[in-house]
Write a structure and sequence with these properties.
The chain is α/β, with parallel strands linked by helices. It has one domain. It has 6 helices and 5 strands; from the N terminus they run ββαβααααββα. The protein has helices spanning 36-60, 75-85, 87-94, 109-124, 129-157, 188-206, and strands at 2-5, 20-26, 65-68, 163-168, 180-185. Strands 1-5-2-4-3 form a 5-stranded parallel sheet, covered by helices on one side.
């Protein structure tokens, strides 16, 4: 079961079907050169995420397990890796597991690296349609295996009664176990970020060559 929570409200107790729960947070990043108007939305997004997660914890119980995609180790080492990867999700994680003991790895390093390499190839573009088709196939197969691994890792580490916080990109294809309630944290600022991205693309297309 999946629920989308874009407002800071408590879900009804009757909606809880299972004893394992996941609060799913879409990953949003900002770089050093990000435009000021985007950075403002970025900060707003993570503030709203924290508010919603706090409210959910009041209803469901405190977060006991934390998962973060692309973090390929757990514990304190994983926490250090996360700090450099995404300071905003790091802040949320630190508030719930300062020593990193609740941070669980759900990545297989080899699969993760393979997917990232194929992504780099896709970003470079192609002259040959044949090569492009092959790379898309390899990327799709590697991604499928990675998502299967993530699903299995979650199933094996999320125990009865646990409430997990999962940070993962939008559009992922992870199949969650059927006995897990998934609450999708989607703050209003996420729609604003999507709109900002669409407007930016539209404005670039209007620019003269």
């Amino acid at each position: 079961m999946s629920q989308e929570l874009g407002k800071v409200e408590k879900p009804e107790v009757s909606s809880y079907k299972h004893n394992r729960k996941i609060l799913q947070v879409p990953l949003v990043y900002a770089g050093k050169d990000s435009p000021p108007d985007y950075v403002e939305l970025f900060e707003k997004y993570w503030q709203q995420v924290n508010e919603i997660v706090n409210k959910l914890e009041n209803s469901l119980g405190s977060v006991t397990v934390i998962y973060h995609e692309t973090v390929n180790t757990d514990g304190e080492e994983g926490l250090k890796l996360l700090e450099g990867l995404n300071p905003k999700s790091y802040e949320l994680v630190c508030g719930r597991c300062k020593d990193g003991k609740n941070l669980k790895c759900i990545e297989d390093t080899k699969l993760l690296e393979e997917v990232m390499d194929w992504e780099r190839c896709l970003m470079m573009g192609f002259l040959s349609d044949k090569v492009a088709t092959k790379v898309y196939e390899f990327f799709g197969e590697a991604s499928r295996k990675r998502y299967q691994y993530i699903s299995k890792a979650i199933d094996e580490t999320l125990k009865d009664g646990d409430v997990a916080l999962l940070f993962i990109r939008e559009g992922h294809l992870v199949q969650f176990p059927k006995d897990v309630d998934v609450f999708s944290v989607a703050p209003p600022a996420l729609d604003e970020i999507h709109r900002w991205a669409r407007d930016r693309v539209a404005n670039k297309e209007k620019e003269p060559d």
